[in-house]
Amino acid sequence: MDVNSAHRSVSLLRSLDGVMPQWSERLESRPALDFVHYCLRGVGQIVFMNNPVTGLLILVGMWVFSPWLGFAAVLGVVASTASALILGLDRVAVRAGLYGFNGALVGAGLATFLEPPWSGRELVYIVVVAAFSTMLMATLGAMLLPRLKVPPLTLPFNFATLAFLLAAFAVAHGDVGPLVGPQSPTVVGPEIDTSLRAAEGGSAVGVVEGVVNAIVRGISQLFLADSVVASLIILAGMFVCSRIATAFAVLGSALGVATGLLLGADGYKVYHGFWGYNSYVSAVAIGGVFFVLTWRSALFAAACAVVTALLFATISTVFSPWGLPALTLPFCFGTLAFLIMKELTPRFQEVPIEEVTTPEEHRRLLGRGEAEFGGRDAVGEQRE
Prior knowledge:
Layout lengths: L2 H14 L4 H7 L3 H14 L7 H14 L1 H21 L3 H5 L5 H13 L6 H29 L6 H14 L38 H15 L6 H14 L1 H21 L3 H5 L5 H13 L5 H25 L9 H12 L18 H9 L17
């Protein structure tokens, strides 16, 4: 490889780093490609990565696990993003993917909990509920941002999906699959099998293998995928945008798994990453996204990951009589509680919502002493 080729390779890698503002500038005059571009950003925003390459790799991971899951996520993000454009919502937020990530999760959620896959009725449900999540995103944003200065996170996904699943119990064409359904509440604490195992009722696996597997699987469980391979692809996508966020994702999942093990949780659920997925996205949010990363905010992120794991147990128990999943409600409630703290203590330097880019960029601007973070918008472009 000659010097010019090496230079071009380095330039290409740098152009993929962070929030890739130059790509937004290049595609702004190409509406069709630009729409695809901010749909991909929307998928990346599920883990606070405003990067289309991150979004693309997340979708690849979902498709690897299940083509139906990947397609449903694509359909959801397209429906929710298109709805935002039709409603005339803030264009900067739309281009940053902020009206797409809840729709992508709606698609993945309904693809997981409804049957049969690929049916025309399910496709209609995904489009309608994803579009509804956009309305909820706008409404909750109008309520939370001015008053509490916190984002709605994935609350629209949770509210829209759970509302649909509850309604589906009362109609003949709800298409609810076996993963959800009302059941009689039982007290099972003393009878819980805490051994790490790949199948319910199956034999135990080695502790080291089981713990590593649980931590890794927790990454893809956020996207309703139960796959080590999908998790590694998703981590690669996050790494493209932010190395700090990737590290906190692994740390958060590990803390969630550790909490489950220490509490004596069901070893099957621990092994398959259920105790890790809410915790890791909480750790990413606090560990450098909404707070500038310092040793204090790092500890705060770790504490949030543990609290979120406890909330997973609480919400799962509350929902168990209805057979409903906890989804990402533990992440939302735990993270919002910690984010609201920013108004009550001077120990952390908050990142204004409209200035959020990457943990690395936040630290760089802190080092330069730029208290206002340079006046950048949601896609990293300099505001007038």
